[in-house]
Design brief:
Length: 310
């Protein structure tokens, strides 16, 4: 007789197979009774393949196999924290670990078939060679298995094989399982370049805006100064270029008026008469009044008044 799986756990479907020890032929019509105390949990008859199966419950229960010319056989199952301990009783020949060697022929029974005799087994029912986190405790009996060493149990691990605590971009996905990191080895460099580019654009935009603002301020100031002369926005200050480069006039006193001494009466601020007709120079009507005084006047086209050339 053999169990499959050889190392069952609570909740597993356990297949029991019965064969004749002499002929190795499956034995059918055997009674398979699973009970706890005096309560029957399952009752089966082995099929033509000599098999029956049931779900392993929790706690302690007995599996009794009997019928035909065979002596009855009992196994006591003890299930605690998912660990199943099987002890044989009765007289039937059995192969508990399913290794093809009958228990009565084995010098050292290995119920969980992990290569370690039962008497030396560190974790009965589990493979003693499996210790993923290398902590010296067999995984089957280890309450804290952490195979990737990130201090997160394997059953709670978000990203198996990687450190769950490393999340560079703080998106809640460990870097080891983050698609953005896995698919773009240069994502950090690209992000840095993009950030620097954005910073340069912002700085240059600020400088351009400041330059435009300064230009507008200067333009407004110039317009304000020009309007302060008493004319409109098209007014040109006659002082700037009225006599630039000199003038040619048959009247020497006109060409040299800037160097002629000013008589005392030139201090008189009396304006020329309104109907005085002057001479046109560079678009301005000018006149010397009184004559030969060296005192020049220009006519404001907006008011029609003569203004003294200061």
């Amino acid at each position: 007789m053999e169990f499959n799986p050889a190392n069952p756990k609570q909740g597993d479907s356990l297949l029991v197979s019965m064969t004749d020890a002499d002929s190795d032929v499956p034995v059918d019509d055997l009674s398979v009774l699973v009970s706890r105390s005096e309560n029957i949990l399952y009752s089966f008859i082995s099929d033509e393949n000599g098999q029956a199966h049931f779900i392993i419950p929790n706690g302690t229960f007995i599996v009794r196999i009997s019928g035909g010319q065979y002596n009855p056989l009992e196994f006591t199952f003890t299930v605690e924290n998912e660990v199943v301990d099987i002890k044989q009783g009765g007289n039937l020949v059995a192969d508990i670990d399913g290794d093809g060697i009958l228990n009565i022929e084995e010098q050292d029974a290995d119920s969980d078939n992990d290569g370690v005799p039962d008497e030396l087994d560190q974790c009965p029912g589990y493979d003693d060679s499996v210790d993923l986190d290398k902590d010296g405790i067999i995984d089957g009996c280890d309450s804290f298995v952490d195979s990737d060493g990130d201090q997160v149990r394997d059953i709670d691990d978000v990203c198996p094989g990687f450190d769950d605590t490393v999340d560079t971009d703080q998106d809640g996905i460990p870097d080891g399982c983050d698609p953005s990191n896995a698919n773009d080895d240069k994502s950090d460099d690209a992000d840095s370049i993009a950030q620097n580019t954005q910073t340069l654009i912002e700085e240059n935009s600020t400088m351009i805006i400041a330059g435009i603002g300064l230009f507008i301020a200067i333009l407004l100031a110039l317009l304000f100064i020009r309007r302060g002369k008493g004319g409109d926005g098209d007014f040109t200050d006659p002082y700037d270029d009225m006599f630039d480069g000199g003038y040619s006039n048959s009247d020497s006193s006109f060409n040299d008026f800037t160097s002629s001494p000013m008589p005392d009466y030139a201090q008189d601020n009396q304006r020329p008469p309104q109907n005085t007709v002057g001479q046109m120079r560079d678009g301005y009507e000018i006149t010397e009044y009184p004559n030969n005084s060296g005192q020049w006047w220009w006519k404001d086209t907006q008011t029609g008044q003569w203004q003294k050339w200061q």
